[in-house]
Amino acid sequence: MMRGEAQREGKGSAAILSALSTVLLAMVLRSAKGAATTTALWTAVADPRIAKTIESVLTKPAAPVGSFLTRVRVMAAAELLNAGDATVATIAGQVGYQSESAFSRAFRAEVGTTPARFRRNQQRRWLESATAGD
């Protein structure tokens, strides 16, 4: 559902993605049977920063969890950058950012590169793998 909504370019998409992220977090937390780091509740838990965030939510629910939302937004944006040709500004809006520059800063902080460079690198890797058999 998140991927489908992220690919839509319409009013309300950012709000819907934000709500879906909240629902996803609630479902992950509800299904937890113990400490978040002992079982893979979600593929992102393999990332130590995400696992730490989820564990904090479980042990200190009043703590701020903005880093989790940032990570979810960046993950969704990476998929959009990989899957289509929407502009970085459009993708920024789709994943809940009010400005392209704020999105680019957050993306770079999480991934280590700009969204545009990430897309170019992904396209280059795809081309290299597609032509490797030739």
Task: Please tag this protein with its features.
single chain; 134 residues; mainly alpha; Arc Repressor Mutant, subunit A; 7 helices
**Order of helices and strands, N to C?**
HHHHHHH
Helical fraction: 55-70%
Strand content: under 5%
Question: What would you call the quaternary organization?
Answer: single chain
What kind of sheet is the major sheet?
A: none
Radius of gyration: 16 Å
CATH fold naming: Arc Repressor Mutant, subunit A
Could you give me the name of the CATH homologous superfamily? Homeodomain-like
Shape from CA axes? globular
Mean pLDDT: 77
Low-confidence stretches: 35-42
* Total helical segments: 7
- Report the span from N to C terminus: 37 Å
The CATH level-2 architecture is identified as Orthogonal Bundle
**How many domain units?**
1
The total count of strands amounts to 0
CATH class label:
Mainly Alpha
How would you sum up this structure, described in words?
- With 134 residues, the chain is an all-alpha fold.
- The chain is 68% helix and 0% strand.
- It has one domain: Arc Repressor Mutant, subunit A.
- α4 crosses α6 (100-111) and α5 crosses α6 (100-111).
- The model is unreliable at 35-42 (pLDDT under 50).
Q: Strands, helices and their partners?
A:
Layout (H helix, E strand, L loop, with lengths): L1 H6 L5 H19 L16 H12 L6 H18 L4 H7 L5 H12 L3 H17 L3
Helix pairs in contact: 4-6, 4-7, 5-6
